[in-house]
Specification:
- With 138 residues, this protein is of the alpha/beta class.
- The protein has a single domain, classed as Rossmann fold, CATH 3.40.50.9200.
- It is 36% helix and 17% strand.
- The chain is built from five helices and five strands; from the N terminus they run E-H-E-H-E-H-E-H-E-H.
- Strands 2-1-3-4-5 form a five-stranded parallel sheet, with helices on both faces.
- Helix 1 links the parallel strand 1 and strand 2.
- The radius of gyration is 15 Å and the shape is globular.
Length: 138
């Protein structure tokens, strides 16, 4: 069988995903990424410790903010965003499921804003990290 995506040629992207880890939005998001094409390899490097998240964000390729969690822990997400900005990381905002609007504070810092479609999420991540001239075929 022809392997269209040889393991050694596929970049593995490091993603820091906004907390909390054990909520419906987070679990749904992880499930969507896990079902993405085999050509998109990623690793969740989220560190929920007070001292570890700045280092994890520095080591990430992008910060993923699940905007549905914004009201739940606005101050912590702001810290994540500030670290991501200081390390010049892409910031991908995922709109709340079924919603079109996100808070203006998030809109202003977003590299990309996207809904819950898996292909759109992967595309937004890759375009945010690699630039708008990047082409990825799902």
């Amino acid at each position: 069988m022809l392997d269209l995506f040889p393991e050694e040629n596929v970049q593995k992207w490091k993603l820091f995903i906004s907390y909390p880890k054990d909520c419906d939005d987070y679990n749904t998001f992880i499930s969507r990424l896990e079902s993405a094409t085999e050509a998109f390899k990623w690793e969740d490097i989220t560190d929920m410790t007070e001292t570890g998240y700045s280092e994890a964000i520095a080591d990430s390729d992008a910060l993923i903010v699940l905007s549905g969690l914004w009201e739940e822990d606005k101050n912590l997400i702001k810290k994540h965003i500030n670290f991501a900005q200081s390390f010049q990381k892409a910031i991908i905002i995922i709109r709340p499921y079924g919603a079109e609007e996100i808070p203006a504070e998030l809109q202003d810092v977003a590299t990309k804003v996207v809904g819950w479609n898996t292909a759109c999420i992967v595309d937004a991540i890759l375009l945010s990290i690699n630039g708008d001239d990047y082409e990825f075929f799902l």
